[in-house]
Amino acid sequence: MSDFSLRGRYVVRITPADVGRRVSVRARVGEDAGGPQFTDAVGTLESWSDGILVIRRRDGQRTEVDEVAMVAGKTLPPPPTLPRG
Questions:
Q1: CA pair distance 47, 33, nearest whole angstrom
Q2: What are phi and psi of 59, to 5 degrees?
Q3: What pairing do the DSSP bridges indicate for beta strands 52-56 and 62-66?
Q4: Which residue in 26, 40, 66, 68 has its CB near the most CB atoms, within 10 A?
Q5: Left if phi > 0, otherwise alpha if psi is -120 to 50, otherwise beta: which for 23?
């Protein structure tokens, strides 16, 4: 069972209070003959206002997610730090 789902259902466990934290979000982006299509975004939740979440990915890319399209979301621990050597 995925951390996103609870008994087969997706669960949203983030709120606007999580701005500044690292999150993982799954959002519905459409549908095709096989069923619904989803996209995932992992990064720092930079803002959540007027129904739009802005997530900054590790590579610096900003991703906007409409909260109505969000089907799952959770906070994550900080990313692991790699040893410098």
A1: 34
A2: -80, 5
A3: antiparallel
A4: 26
A5: beta
Q: Cα Rg for the chain, rounded, in angstroms? A: 14
Q: Phi and psi (nearest 5°) for 19? A: -55, 135
Q: Residue 58 carries which side chain, given as an amino acid letter?
A: R
Contacts of 26 (CB under 8 A, 6+ apart): 4, 10, 38, 39, 40, 70, 71, 72, 73
Mean pLDDT by 10 residues, the chain (85 residues): 58 97 96 91 97 97 97 93 81
Tell me the pTM: 0.82
Strand positions, DSSP E, the chain: 5-6, 9-10, 22-32, 35-49, 52-56, 62-66, 70-75
Q: What is the pLDDT of residue 45?
A: 98
Q: What integer pLDDT is reported at residue 68 of this predicted model?
A: 96
CA 55, 40, 10, 54: dihedral to nearest 10 degrees? Answer: 10
